[in-house]
Automatic annotation (TrEMBL):
<dbReference type="InterPro" id="IPR004108">
    <property type="entry name" value="Fe_hydrogenase_lsu_C"/>
</dbReference>
<protein>
    <submittedName>
        <fullName>Iron hydrogenase</fullName>
    </submittedName>
</protein>
<dbReference type="InterPro" id="IPR050340">
    <property type="entry name" value="Cytosolic_Fe-S_CAF"/>
</dbReference>
<keyword id="KW-0408">Iron</keyword>
<feature type="domain" description="Iron hydrogenase large subunit C-terminal">
    <location>
        <begin position="61"/>
        <end position="305"/>
    </location>
</feature>
<keyword id="KW-0411">Iron-sulfur</keyword>
<dbReference type="Pfam" id="PF02906">
    <property type="entry name" value="Fe_hyd_lg_C"/>
</dbReference>
<keyword id="KW-0479">Metal-binding</keyword>
<keyword id="KW-0004">4Fe-4S</keyword>
<dbReference type="GO" id="GO:0051539">
    <property type="term" value="F:4 iron, 4 sulfur cluster binding"/>
</dbReference>
<dbReference type="InterPro" id="IPR009016">
    <property type="entry name" value="Fe_hydrogenase"/>
</dbReference>
<comment type="similarity">
    <text>Belongs to the NARF family.</text>
</comment>
Length: 357
């Protein structure tokens, strides 16, 4: 399921116009006012590529997806680190794999670039959530100038695998919307659920039972790295760590606010309703925060709608925080890592429609 799933042919306008207002993800799934025809086509999936093992292939894997896959196949039979090695060995055994990149290996570079932006502006809106970007471009263009230009982990990782047949595995279907812009074009972007179909077709479970993988065949970039307490990347946590004094002033219903030593406020906003209310209020009252990290899903990426719900989101979040640990720093020199994102207002056809809420 996607934030933009369940699309009809005509783009519709949300009729809940009060500010602030209540809006659930289910409400938005009945509305197509945020998606263009081209983007709607990009949300489809084709896993037939697994039948052709000849092309040189590289994978980009989100750590949130890997935790989810671990809970499906490996939990109870091996450690998470052993599972990461088994998954890498399996993909190499079945396909002509050149490189596997865990997107968490991009974090150090991303933190460095975001901190530069933070120091250079009075207001910064950060999100690796394509749903946030799509919503801002279509309905909150007043925030475009404040959006971070640093590429998302998926976009940045593409710089290390381009030229191969590229497959990205993400916890949310909307990550497919990042492919095709800013010089990023994956051959396949799969949700965790779709990737599970790939693993089943290639008989991953039998591979694990055979216990035949090389436990040492894994590179630093394939390992989940440096999780600092969030299921979405740790942008706000990293910025807060740069301040001498931090005071939490709000922690309620998916909104956290911290006052830092210079009097600015750093916030984390999660959940569809919270995000849209922030966008609407900022239109009349300004962006408010020194920095806002915004994600549409209530529990950020670990709770993405492309995940298999094996455990509760709370259990997955707790496990994710355990599995991530600091690894030796990886330095990349690829010039693609320095490229920035671009944003633009997007006009979509809108018509009113009547719904009984």
């Amino acid at each position: 399921m996607s934030f933009f799933a369940g699309l009809s042919k005509n783009n519709q306008k949300c009729i809940k116009t009060d500010t602030p207002f209540n809006l659930s993800l289910s409400d938005c799934l009945a509305c197509s006012g945020c998606v263009t025809t081209d983007e709607a086509g990009a949300l489809s999936a084709d896993i037939s590529f697994v039948r052709d093992s000849a092309p040189q292939t590289s994978f980009v894997l989100s750590p949130q997806s890997k935790v989810n896959i671990f809970n499906i196949y490996g939990k109870g039979n091996m450690s998470y680190r052993e599972f990461e090695g088994a998954l890498s060995s399996f993909l190499r055994a079945k396909l002509n794999v050149r490189r596997i990149v865990d997107t968490s290996s991009m974090r150090r570079k991303i933190y460095k670039e975001i901190y530069k932006e933070y120091l250079a502006t009075d207001h910064l809106v950060i999100s690796a959530c394509p749903g946030v970007v799509a919503y801002v471009e279509r309905t909150a263009p007043h925030l475009i100038d404040y959006l971070s230009r640093v590429k998302s982990p998926q976009q940045m990782a593409f710089s290390l695998v381009k030229g191969d047949r590229t497959v990205s595995v993400m916890p949310c279907q909307d990550k497919k919307l990042e492919s095709g812009r800013d010089g990023v074009k994956f051959d396949h972007v799969l949700t965790t659920r779709e990737f599970r179909r790939v693993l089943d077709e290639l008989e991953f479970e039998l591979f694990l039972k055979a216990n035949s993988w090389n436990h040492h065949e894994i590179e630093d970039m394939e390992v989940t790295q440096w999780n600092i307490g969030t299921s979405s990347g740790g942008y706000a946590e990293f910025i807060l760590s740069k301040h001498r004094s931090v005071k939490k002033i709000k922690d309620r219903n998916g909104i956290r606010e911290y006052m830092v030593d210079d009097g600015g406020i750093v916030s984390q906003i999660t959940g569809l309703e919270n995000s849209i209310n922030y966008f609407k209020i900022s239109k009349t009252k300004g962006p408010k925060y020194k920095m806002a990290e915004v994600f549409l899903c209530k529990n950020s990426c670990i709770g993405g709608p492309g995940q298999e719900r094996i455990n509760s989101v709370e259990v997955d979040s707790a496990e994710y925080n355990i599995y991530g640990k600091e690894q030796p720093e990886i330095y990349y020199s690829d010039p693609g890592l320095e490229e920035k994102r671009t944003f633009r207002p997007v006009s979509v056809k809108r018509i009113d429609f009547k719904v009984d809420w």
